[in-house]
Amino acid sequence: MDDKIAPHLEELTRALGDLEKTGIRAEFEKLIAFRVPPDVAKESILRKFGGKRKTLKVKDLSANIKNFELTGRILDLGEKSIRQQAGTQEKPSRLYTGVLADETGSVLFSSWRELPGSIGDVINIKNAYVRIWQNRIRLSIGEQSPVSKISGSSLPPLSELSASQKKKLIDIGAADFSVDTIACVLKLSYREILVKGRKSRVISGVLADETGRLPFTAWIELPGIDIGSIIRIEGAQVRIFRGMPSINILSSTKVSSIGSDETGKLSFTFESAAKDPVPLKIQEINSRDSMFDVSIAGNLVSVRPGSGIVSRCPECSRVIQKGNCRVHGKVEGIWDMRIKAVMDDGTGSVSVMFPRELAEIIYGKTLEEAEQLMFSDVSKDAVYEDLRRFLTGRYLAVRGNSSRSEFGISFVAENAWVPEEDLAVRVVELLRRLEPDEEDGQDKSPQVSGGGIELA
Ligand SMILES: [Zn+2]
């Protein structure tokens, strides 16, 4: 009997961690006691406790995901001892850190348990999770993450995986460790900062190719490189700033200008890359973790609560309630206005945030005018109600950045306008969606019914 169930228990332990602690073993034994065949019991337990478990590739990793399985080759591995406070006692423990890669990318990891492999080996991790640490995505292997060594894996060899990956800008994501790319410098600015008490110059700007744009920061001088230069970057690091990947050029990164013989073979020129971005479908925005400097257009189908006038802490700009900042306590708040609205273009919807300058433009009232409305009305939601009446259903185009947080994708607008040129096309499209035809009309009309669309 035990011989029959032992392999299943082993498999469950590998998949779900400590069976005793989680009560899974008791559950399994109950099924066996009810004469459920061991393999059926195992499957049922896996479905019940590992139902949300998924197998991911490195490129799929993004902030705050957990309980997934991943297989990768160890590119780098080190250990350090850390003193952890356990109650009143300090207990020393070991943290193993390194880089793990598959054919889609490489990622930093940290593990509280010793790994069953070393540099070059392929390991499989279950119940892994992701943390953001020092602006980088980090794969975390915890006490409850079973790790096993895989022999005969079909993953590319160490030499191939440890080379930087050549990527177009649109494919560079949070999980990339080191990348090579060819791009054109669209924007460039210098600022002085203090690094370890010494003044040093940092260059920041925007890169573009035919697929998209990304911000960059260079911690080294870039002689001969200016706006319009097309450059090859090798071994740049990817960092995450406000949910957005950013290319970091360090002293270990190689940057060179591309000669005119080679620029002819590229799919972009400075002129094509510098053009204003063409509006994307919201569906595409929602399919990616983040997009930098893109535009979308659609109807504002609802204005979210929290829009209108808010009071901010003068120290940290957090929104405060009743003159109290979560961090700084009692403060003299500063009035600000913002609008959060849901934009829908028929392919999907996304939450768009309009900061004060844009809120004033699309609302047609300044902060001061909105304040007067707030103080002249008995309802404390006067501005929010007015915003809803005025904005719901309006058609707008916005340009800015989108990024994923635990609440889903949000878009921060940096520019907004009413696209006049395609008004006629849009009216036809709207009529088509409002008038259900025989085949597929029924399920489409609710998309626009909530907003009370008006063409202003
Ligand atoms: Zn504060």
UniProtKB/TrEMBL annotation:
One of its GO terms (biological process) is double-strand break repair via homologous recombination. Keywords: DNA-binding. Residues 437-456 are annotated as: Disordered. It comes from the Archaea. NCBIfam families: PRK07218.1 (NF005554). InterPro entries: NA-bd_OB-fold (IPR012340), SOSS-B (IPR051231). This is Replication factor-A protein 1. The keyword Flavoprotein does not apply. The keyword Cell wall biogenesis/degradation does not apply. One of its GO terms (molecular function) is DNA binding.
